[in-house]
Specification:
The complex is a heterodimer of chains A (94) and B (464). Chain A is built from 4 helices and no strands. Chain A is mainly alpha-helical and 94 residues long. Chain A is flat. With 464 residues, chain B is an alpha/beta fold. Chain B is built from 18 helices and 6 strands. The longest helix of chain B is centred in the first third of the chain and has 29 residues. Chain B is elongated. The N and C termini of chain B lie far apart (73 Å). Classes of the chains: A mainly alpha (94), B alpha/beta (464).
């Protein structure tokens, strides 16, 4: 129970941090915001790695492997496409 | 070791916050992305150093395969296809969440949540939430992808008792979650996952293509909550923090998009808005009224003799891939000492910020691109407005006609400009199925045809 309360604390605080940080994002960059949040939400790869990690082979390892692959597509794809977009935003040359 | 990993995960979480913070301005955004990448590397390396990781072969293989696919897609994708790419990526996060929840259910000891058959009830609930939200994200995103990619019709698919069916399935889902938490059998786990999968499919099909900015943002949010669910299951603060950040980001974007259309989130989600029936009705009325139409030469003449021109792009520009030709046209106008700026409506295009990215791709400097609040007052002192592939977002009926479906939606007030040029393929009504009064005004000229061809025509004419 104590564990859950500690997790809830982190959860609620993170929502507040998210709320204020996201409102400060300029609307012009809303597309890169979506692709970068997509990339960082693939941090669930952490959970997938733990499933693939054990030496013992089983259904959990197979599912973990699939999850690692899917998350990797997202991590690489998400960060690269964000970088591509951000490279294009340039100021007027005076 | 334990403490060290907790600290490393916290660092990674802070880096993710900095990544989002960087997006507050284009100057800091690239550095922000580097923070994001660093945060991810820290998270992965920390996990690989945990004692539970004993074999690396499959991990390396998975990252290599996934990474190669992700990299090649991200490098090849055209910027006009971004909305469907993002939708596809969301579906992968969803499926990955389902897989991780499933893995945790089958091998709970690896995650330190008890042994098979004796998983604590709190973990079971968290696991089922992670899996259910993940499955909804997965199937919902696939439908959104299909609609955006044009694989399936963008029209809303509605049928009788649709909402009743969805509500019923929702209740069944909750019951299965409870049964699973009490019995923890494999059948209930997969039962609730498949049910959630079907619900995801059903809630997105009634929503039309032009409401996709809301849907894509909403699915973005769901993918975050799914990560949160997994974070609670694994008692991992990093996943909880990241999931909450992404979840609130998507929720705020959905809110911004709904506000841009003056519609409630509920009415978008219930769907059925727009589609062919309404558009046909709109056409019938418009056929009888005369409009003034012109060609590229007329448009070129008007714009090069103007002092100020404002460009209003919409989804039609993306469809015609007209952004590069448009930029070239504006460059020539600028050489002729015309003041050219761009005005972006919050819901123009198929995802938040879609138009900004396309203009940036065509090398339009971002300080010439203005948001609705920043430019609306300037229309009164603008000589020519060039609307390219947009309609509803300029329709004054949103302010005057309380019967109109778009009544109350904030619009770009192009009607205040001295003259308005509409580059459009036909006189058809916009997505909302409402005819645009502006088409019939004396100071409006319709430029019928493909937007890109029209811009090229104007370029030729300006060159003479």
């Amino acid at each position: 129970m104590e564990h859950l309360l500690q997790e809830l604390t982190v959860f609620i605080l993170a929502i507040f941090v998210g709320y204020y940080v996201i409102w400060s994002v300029t609307p012009a960059l809303h597309s890169p915001l979506m692709s970068v949040t997509n990339a960082i939400s693939s941090v669930i790869i952490v959970g997938a790695l733990i499933a693939v990690g054990p030496a013992l082979f089983g259904i959990s390892k197979i599912m973990g492997f699939i999850a690692v692959m899917l998350a990797a597509v997202n991590i690489f794809g998400g960060f690269i496409v964000t970088q591509r977009m951000l490279q294009m935003f340039k100021k007027k040359k005076k | 070791m334990e403490n060290y990993s907790i600290f490393a995960y916290l660092t990674s979480g802070v880096f993710f916050i900095l990544a989002l913070r960087g997006l507050s301005s284009p100057e800091t955004a690239r550095r922000g992305n580097i923070y994001g990448i660093s945060g991810m590397i820290i998270a992965i390396v920390t996990t690989l150093l945990l004692p539970v990781i004993e074999s690396y072969v499959l991990i390396v293989l998975g990252i290599l395969i996934g990474g190669a696919i992700g990299t090649s897609i991200a490098l090849k994708i055209q910027m006009t296809a971004l909305p469907q790419l993002i939708a596809a990526f969301h579906s992968l996060v969803g499926l990955a969440a389902v897989m991780v929840a499933g893995a945790a259910f089958h091998n709970p000891s690896a995650y330190g949540i008890g042994d098979s058959g004796s998983i604590p009830i709190a973990s079971l609930i968290e696991m089922s939430l992670g899996s259910a939200i993940g499955a909804i994200t997965f199937s919902g995103s696939i439908i959104a992808f299909g609609k955006l990619q044009g694989i399936m019709s963008g029209n809303p698919i509605t049928f009788k008792f649709q909402h009743f069916l969805n509500a019923f399935l929702g209740i069944v889902l909750i019951s299965v979650v409870i049964l699973f938490s009490l019995n923890q059998t494999q059948n209930f786990f997969w039962g609730l996952t498949i049910l959630a999968f079907i619900i995801g499919f059903l809630i997105i099909i009634p929503i039309g293509a032009a409401d996709m900015p809301v849907v894509v943002s909403m699915l973005n949010s769901y993918s975050g909550w799914a990560a949160c669910g997994i974070g609670f299951t694994l008692s991992n603060n990093l996943l909880i923090i990241t999931g909450a950040l992404v979840g609130s980001s998507g929720a705020i974007l959905s809110y911004v998009m709904c506000k841009g259309m003056n519609r409630s989130f509920i009415s978008v989600i219930l769907g059925g808005f727009g589609g062919e029936d309404l558009v046909v009705k709109g056409n019938k009325i418009t056929e009888q009224r005369p409009v003034k139409s012109g060609d590229a030469n007329d448009a070129a003449f008007m714009m090069q003799n103007a002092e100020s021109v404002v460009i209003v792009p919409g989804y039609g520009m993306a469809v015609a891939q007209a952004q590069h030709a448009l930029k070239e046209m504006c460059d020539i106008l600028k050489k002729k000492e015309v003041n050219v700026r761009y005005a972006i409506h919050p819901v123009a295009g198929r995802m938040p910020g879609h138009m900004n990215v396309l203009l940036a791709e065509a090398n339009v400097p971002y300080d010439e691109v203005l948001e609705l609040e920043a430019i609306n007052r300037d229309f009164a002192s603008t000589d020519v407005v060039f609307v390219i592939g947009a309609n509803d977002i300029t329709n004054p009926a949103a302010k005057t006609d309380s019967q109109s479906p778009i009544y109350g939606m904030p619009i770009l007030e192009v009607e205040n400009a001295k003259s308005v040029l509409f580059s459009k393929r036909s006189l058809g009504a916009g997505y909302a199925g409402v005819e645009n009064e502006l088409f019939f005004r004396d100071n409006t000229m319709m430029l019928f045809g493909d937007a890109k061809a029209m811009c090229e025509g104007i370029i030729n004419s300006l060159g003479k």
